[in-house]
Amino acid sequence: MDEDKPDPMPFSLEIERLEASGLLRHIELHEMLPSTNDLAIVRAADATLKTPALFVALEQTAGRGRGDNAWWSSDGALMFSLLLEPHRVGIPADRLPCVSLAVAVAICDTIEGLTPEMTGGVKWPNDVYLGDRKLAGVLIECPNTSGQTPPRLVIGIGINVNNSLATAPAEVRSVGVSLCEVIGRELDGTDLLLNLLQALRSRLVQLARDDPQLAEAWRERSILSGRHVEILDGSRKITGEVVEIAEDGALVVQTPDGPTRCYAGILTLAE
Fold first, then answer.
1. What is the pLDDT, as a whole number, of residue 123?
2. Are 124 and 267 a contacting pair, CB within 8 Å?
3. CATH number of 15-220
4. Which residues of the chain form CATH 2.30.30.100?
5. Residues 206, 102 contacting (CB under 8 angstroms)
6. CA dist 226 to 9, 26, 184, 251, Å?
7. Contact assessment for residue 24 and residue 55, using Cβ atoms and an 8 Å cutoff
8. Which CATH number among 3.40.50.150, 3.60.15.10, 2.30.30.100, 3.30.240.20 corresponds to the domain 224-269?
9. Are the beta carbons of 203 and 103 closer than 8 angstroms?
10. What's the rounded Cα separation, in Å, for the pair 47 and 43?
11. Taking Cα atoms as reference points, which of 100, 63, 58, 69 lies closest to residue 171?
12. Which residues make Cβ contacts (< 8 Å) with residue 45, sequence separation at least 6?
């Protein structure tokens, strides 16, 4: 890092403003956690816990991505999990596979509100990009509460905000980006989180209503359309050119055998 530049600003949040927003019913801010999703999953079994519940970590030591992937983070990143009860929003069970896409669009809404020159891109099924670099990741998990509570959903989000990737591992540094590096200034964490929570609420309401504008939003922002990909879904391997992200959240891939719909899997760009 340039010696004349200040160190990245540790992420700070004003709990009073979050409480006053009316968007949350429970808030926990932790200096350090292994994983906010892990904590949210444990807390989901508490029937007395009011939702939506927010769990934030200023430092995360064992953040998780999809599958066996890890999420690298540093001071200045926004890392949190939101615990929801989908039925309170009206999201039916058959729309739950689309939650990660709705969340990705909400992240795009939020960052696009920072400056008109910035456009977010959705990489199916759960990443947000700026240009060709990854800005944010989403991890959706359904805790097993053994019927002690109504069905609950954990939405884990990590966004590179005020952190520099200069100290990141080489494999992260080559593909990642942070908002402060793009915009050229540090951002107010509370403002950003409040705007994101508002955008999340709006997009999840659209999902509950099966609003076609939501699917149009993730189609418009898809960074994979027209690109050749390889998807591993268990023992199944799909290779072909991406057509679109369908209304039901499936990635439609044109293969030699015809269009194939993929609902899950580990995706890599084909050579």
1. 96
2. yes
3. 3.30.930.10
4. 224-269
5. yes
6. 39, 43, 32, 12
7. no
8. 2.30.30.100
9. yes
10. 9
11. 69
12. 143, 145, 146, 148, 149
Q: Give the amino acid at 129.
A: Y
- Prior bond of 125 cis (ω within 30°): yes
Q: How many CA atoms lie within 13 A of 220 on its CB side?
A: 12
The C-alpha atoms of residue 161 and residue 187 are separated, in whole angstroms, by 7
Q: From the first residue on, what is the mean pLDDT of each consecutive set of 10 residues in the chain (271 residues)? A: 41 88 96 94 95 93 57 78 95 94 98 91 95 94 84 96 78 83 92 97 97 97 96 92 96 96 91 61
Determine contact, residues 37/154, Cβ cutoff 8 Å: yes
CB atoms within 10 A of CB 271: 5
3-state secondary structure the chain: CCCCCCCCCCCCCCHHHHHHCCCCCEEEEEEEECCHHHHHHHHCCCCCCCCCEEEEEEEECCCECCCCCECCCCCCCEEEEEEECHHHHCCCHHHHHHHHHHHHHHHHHHHHCCCCCCCEEEECCCEEEECCEEEEEEEEECCCCCCCCCCCEEEEEEECCCCCCCCCCHHHHCCECCHHHHHCCCCCHHHHHHHHHHHHHHHHHHHHHCCHHHHHHHHHHECCCCCEEEEEECCEEEEEEEEEECCCCCEEEEECCEEEEECCCEEEECC
